[in-house]
Amino acid sequence: MRMRNLYRKPTTLRCNAGSRCYSASAVIWSLLGCLLLFHLYSNIHHKHGEGREVQLRVTNHPQFRELQQVEEEIIQLPPQKGKRSPRAAKRRHKRVTPLVDEFLDEDSRLRHVFFPGNNSAIDPVKVTGNDSYYYYPGRIWLDTDRNPIQAHGGGILYDERSNTYYWYGEYKDGLTYRAHKRGAARVDIIGVGCYSSKDLWTWKNEGIVLAAEEMNGTHDLYKSNVLERPKVIFNDKTRKYVMWMHIDDANYTKAAVGIAISDTPDGPFEYLGSQRPHGYESRDMTVFKDEDGVAYLIYSSEENNVLHIGPMTEDYLNLMPVMRRVFVGQRREAPAVFKHQGTYYMITSGCTGWAPNEALAHAAESILGPWETLGNPCVGGNKMFRIATFLAQSTFVLPLPGFSGSFIFMADRWNPSDLRDSRYVWLPLIVEGPTHHSSEYISRLPLWSRVSIYWHRKWRLPQGWSTFK
Ligand SMILES: *[C@@H]1O[C@H](CO)[C@@H](O)[C@H](O)[C@H]1NC(C)=O
Ligand SMILES: *[C@@H]1O[C@H](CO)[C@@H](O)[C@H](O)[C@H]1NC(C)=O
Ligand SMILES: *[C@@H]1O[C@H](CO)[C@@H](O)[C@H](O)[C@H]1NC(C)=O
Ligand SMILES: *[C@@H]1O[C@H](CO)[C@@H](O)[C@H](O)[C@H]1NC(C)=O
């Protein structure tokens, strides 16, 4: 998330009464939401597409073929309201699509489509049998204590020692407010949330593994600062779990990375401090641990105009004095890096604050570049959905062990008026070998495999995926 040019909109929380005011409006919104749900549901039609089946090259498992069926999503936008606020007009001027415009409108009659309510929450404790393991992008997702998962801007570590997945992310279960009139919507730092799972669906809350600093106002983690996009990798040599994260002040002028370590994946992590990598600004960032054990920091820099990539030192606690500048002038953020058959891939978003925009896939033979842009990886849904990354922003791409070329694309559907209620959009991402089908994505660059993120309203990993080889 970046601060300039970001989408700014008054929230319903502008009065001074703080949380009281907030809970009153929440009740009203819940009531309105219920009413609208009944009245407007008929506005929405969903339909499964004809299922243009893409030839599967990665794996011939039939359940993976299902994930590659193109699923259409028809969203009937309500007629435009007679009077548009100057603010809305200004937004349109910025060529935001009508769908994104609707998405950002807190009064939208489609609010329940973008942010479905509690009654449709995914509850792995309650759901059993054949209904298990389904992901529903955008729905509230409960942990095993039946609280909404708080792991925004997150990433997943597979811990080989315990054969367990750990999901780390921003714990944002606090009040959304603005530090000052022109500031971005924010939640005070609470800390980094951590959840564990064996099946990537049932998540146990392991607590806050790196907590905000409550008292010391000069500390990086002081609550009024910013902690975003925490990512954890394991160092095979030091046997430490190392967390890197975006550290900033409320105005996003510090633009640094913070580093923390732990002996165990479920913390607590010890905060070691922050730095400006290679002496440059660093905002949205990620880390990538390569097969040879070398790890890299990838970060948006130079006012978000350029992405920087550089290797870490062997202990992952610092950076080597090597850095490459990529996508110069292209303004990409929210990087998520993965690798398949020796080729590096990256998904990025544009820079529009909390508002969704078009994702791009990139590929490179060396992680330091040169990187080539392949195009928008989103498949299915509808055009407006695809150019808004299904109303979400990339945060991580998780490889599925045993299924070469199959990944889970993890993204955040930010809710700028109530950031704690931001949702997770997980979808299958498939890297397909060079194909002779003429394709809008690769026709220009036949050298690279195609990267596709398939929209599904409901999907799950092939049953028994974790035991397939
Ligand atoms: C879901 O329930 C919680 C408390 O039970 C409430 O605070 C929240 O506003 C609800 N969210 C929605 C989207 O209905
Ligand atoms: C689950 O699905 C299988 C195969 O489709 C079916 O035979 C079985 O009856 C289902 N079980 C339940 C509880 O619905
Ligand atoms: C507050 O934090 C700063 C920066 O981490 C540190 O140098 C200082 O010692 C801390 N002060 C106290 C009282 O803990
Ligand atoms: C952030 O910017 C606002 C407005 O420009 C200013 O009043 C405030 O002091 C700044 N805060 C910090 C922490 O720099």
TrEMBL record:
<keyword id="KW-0326">Glycosidase</keyword>
<dbReference type="InterPro" id="IPR006710">
    <property type="entry name" value="Glyco_hydro_43"/>
</dbReference>
<keyword id="KW-0378">Hydrolase</keyword>
<keyword id="KW-1133">Transmembrane helix</keyword>
<dbReference type="Pfam" id="PF04616">
    <property type="entry name" value="Glyco_hydro_43"/>
</dbReference>
<comment type="similarity">
    <text>Belongs to the glycosyl hydrolase 43 family.</text>
</comment>
<dbReference type="GO" id="GO:0005975">
    <property type="term" value="P:carbohydrate metabolic process"/>
</dbReference>
<keyword id="KW-0812">Transmembrane</keyword>
<feature type="transmembrane region" description="Helical">
    <location>
        <begin position="21"/>
        <end position="41"/>
    </location>
</feature>
<dbReference type="GO" id="GO:0004553">
    <property type="term" value="F:hydrolase activity, hydrolyzing O-glycosyl compounds"/>
</dbReference>
<dbReference type="InterPro" id="IPR023296">
    <property type="entry name" value="Glyco_hydro_beta-prop_sf"/>
</dbReference>
<protein>
    <recommendedName>
        <fullName>Glycosyl hydrolase family 32 N-terminal domain-containing protein</fullName>
    </recommendedName>
</protein>
<keyword id="KW-0472">Membrane</keyword>
